[in-house]
Amino acid sequence: MFNLPTVLISIVLVAIVAAIIASSVRARKKGKGCGCGCSGCAYRNSCHSGK
Fold this sequence. Notes:
The protein has about 50 residues and is mostly helical. The chain has one domain (about 5-45). It is built from 2 helices and no strands.
């Protein structure tokens, strides 16, 4: 027998984590990174490749 509250809370937490990851991916695709500058960033060549 499943514990319904545990399942519901798990689904909500997975949805929140997925939303955070999706937001991060969208921001990186738009060229927005961590905000600390491109010189020390490991993705500096891929973020601004279209510019």
